[in-house]
Each structure stands twice: as structure tokens, then as C-alpha cells.
Amino acid sequence: MQISVYSMTVEAFLPMLANLSKQLDKATEFATAKKIDSAVLANARLAPDMFPLIKQVQLTTDFAKSGTARLSGVEPPKFEDNEQTIAELQARIRKCIDFVSSVKADSFKGAEDRDIVIPLRDTKLEFKGLVYLRNWVLPNFYFHLTAAYSILRHNGVEIGKRDFLPG
Questions:
Q1: Considering only CA atoms, which of 79, 89, 97 is closest in space to residue 25?
Q2: Domains contained in the chain, number
């Protein structure tokens, strides 16, 4: 079996995003059971200089949707980054899943060699598709996904490795 860019994006992102949503379900249940305002969890951080849960989830979905879009040759959809609650984060994850699942495998033809340009504030990053996927999209996606999981676990939400890994 040959590894495909479609498999490394769409087929990798979808189960991990679904698991992130389930982790947030458990966070909501935890907050209710412990009589904690869920905003406390939504704004929790692992360290003072790290992003809170809200931003970790936003960035996880950003790398999934933008990586999928750019590698399939379409413009990434824009999300407002205005979520304040776990329920709003759940809606964002659903929107991301809807987009990622809508991209068909044949859209990734030639993705390995596609020119990818990411505009930043005062510069731009330029990659070939495979390097973009390997060195930018996947590491960032899993970093922010793991940070979100770790914030929840650190704050007492009863999740474990089975809640993180796809089934």
C-alpha cells in the first residue's frame, strides 16, 4: 500500500478531531459534576506563557483545515477565532470536520510537489507540499492537539491515552 497525502491529512485528522470533541464532552461532564464553571477549563493553561485551551483547539483546527485546503489546492476556509466556551469550541470542531471530510482524495493529486505559500505578518513561508505536510502541518497539528489534551488532563478531566488515540 502506498502512503498518500489524503491519508496523511483527511484520514489522520478526522478521527483525531472526533476524539478532541469527545475529550471536550468529558470536560463539560467533569465541570458539571464538580460544579466548576467550564470557562475555567476553557481558559486553563499548562504554563503562564502557553496558550489556553481555547487557543489550542483553535490552532488544532486551523492546521487541519488549512493543511487539507492548501494541499488539495483550495483556499483555506476562514474561522473567526472568537470562541469563548467549550460549546463554541465544539461547534468549531464540527465545522472543521465538515470541511475536511468534504475534500475528496483526487484533489490531492500532485500535492507532494505543490507550491505552498503561507503569508505571515511581515514575511511568508514557502514549501513544497510534502515538506509542508511533514515539517509544518503534522507537527503543529499534533502539538496543539496534545497541548489541549494535556490541559484537560492536568485539570483533572478523567481522560487517558484511549481518549487521545484513534480507535
A1: 89
A2: 1
